[in-house]
Amino acid sequence: MPTEKGVLGEPECGDSLTIYIKVKDNMIADISFLVFGCVAAVASSSMTTQLARGKSLEEALQITDKDIADALDGLPEHKIHCSVLGASALKNAIENYYMKHRDWEVK
Ligand code: FES
Questions:
Q1: Residue 55 dihedral angles phi and psi, to the nearest 5°
Q2: Atom 3 of ligand 1: nearest residue by CA position
Q3: Quick one: which atom of ligand 1 is closest to the CA of 38?
Q4: What is the value of pTM for the model shown?
Q5: Taking the domains of the chain in order of start, what are their residue ranges?
Q6: CA of 46 to the centre of ligand 1 (A)
Q7: What is the dihedral of CA 45, 48, 52, 57, to 10 degrees?
Q8: What angle do CA 31, 51, 1 make, to 5 degrees?
């Protein structure tokens, strides 16, 4: 089963998140994460994996930082940037998967 990872650092605070995805039949069959960050980053990372697991790659690409914050019943204003880690690292993992495991149409 092809795997890929996406990494993102938060320049404002120095925290970072790595998301690992396993893809089967264009679906996220499994997803995990390694985070170095605040409590909001840990919660956002965990919620990102819950929202993305079982979705198609295209559906998972639509997950936003707002979706993650909403699923957590909101975050304090000064912690909203922590939810960006999850959405962006997931997007990075999917983009890396596309780059390595899919044929690209050359225009
Ligand atoms: Fe750094 Fe939350 S304070 S990710």
A1: -90, 155
A2: 38
A3: 2
A4: 0.88
A5: 3-102
A6: 14
A7: -80
A8: 25
User: Which residue is associated with the tokens 């993102």?
Assistant: 8
Fold of 3-102: Sufe protein. Chain: A (3.90.1010)
Per-residue tens of pLDDT for the chain, all 107 residues: 888 888 888 777 889 999 999 999 999 999 999 999 899 999 999 999 999 999 999 999 999 999 999 999 998 988 888 888 899 999 999 999 999 887 654 44
For 70, the token pair is 């909403």
Place of tokens 């998967």: 97
Measured from the Cα of 15, ligand 1's closest atom is: 1
The residues assigned a catalytic role are 13, 82
